[in-house]
Amino acid sequence: MSEQNIGEFSNQLHEASALVADAELDGGAGEAAGKERVKYSDLTEEEQKRRTQFLIRRAEKQAQKGTEQLVKQYPGLLAVRKEAKINNRFVARSFQRFFASTEFAIMLAKRNESRLVFSDGKMNDGLAALEALIADFKEGIEQDLRAVREIYTQSAKENHDFIVPTYLEPALDLEVSILTPQGNGLYRSLQSYDQMIEMLTVLYWNGIYPQDRIQDAEQGVKKGMRKIYSASRQIILGLNRKFEQMVAKDSEGANQTVA
How far is the C-alpha of 173 from the C-alpha of 215, rounded, in Å? Predict the structure, then answer.
């Protein structure tokens, strides 16, 4: 493997690690690393307040870092530039927080250098698990969207006073770089969630669906993207750990040779 390729891999791995490595995140919700996590309901009122503040702070940090990577242009890498427009704030936030790290995980796991770092083939297993989560996410939203669209279309035909509220402004509107086919598919799934939640909201306005159905969909996209992010994070941290060990071993061998 050429030094140039290793250098590029190292740079990408460094950027990816910066997205997912967080001392607070590794230590739990404001607790010291290694402590057993306590259920939210078992916390005191003050502890609940601190944990909530921590979760808000962590989400803001993830969204900021993720958005910086989304808008970045990468020299020497093929990418699709898209005007990402997402109306629902939950879908937009999940896109900002979890999308860039997922693309990094896919890119890194597919590079030949990852086979050098994980010679036992475990990286293939991690990539397969991540792609399966993305496929499940896609399949789930496609089924739900078809069902909701059918009800929406029928209701609009049957109700002459059908109310259609609209968004005055999207939650997110920016030009982004999409770097992988899997990422492109994941973005389309997020768009489908955005469309479904909009239709559910219209149906709620017309008394056809309860508000709980909207909240379930919003929580669904968040949970699905968190699972994908968690798998992506494990790939990135695993690669980073193994790569650092490999570099340290090579440096130690070089020093022994010189000595």
Answer: 23
Q: Where would I find the H helices in 31-121? A: 45-71, 89-110, 112-117
* 254 has pLDDT over 60: no
Helices (H), 118-210: 122-158, 181-205
What pLDDT is recorded for position 47? 79
Q: Is 28 in a helix, a strand, or coil? A: coil
**How far apart are the C-alpha atoms of 51 and 64, rounded to whole Å?**
20
Q: Which of 144, 145, 162 is nearest to 204 (CA)?
A: 162
Q: Give 105-156 pLDDT, tens digit per residue.
A: 999 988 877 777 776 677 888 999 999 999 999 999 999 999 999 999 999 9
Report in angstroms the alpha-carbon separations of 103 from 70, 86, 109, 178: 10, 19, 10, 8
Distance of alpha carbon 243 from alpha carbon 238, whole angstroms = 8
CA distance linking residue 170 with residue 174, whole number of Å: 10
Q: Give strand pairing partners of 173.
A: 85
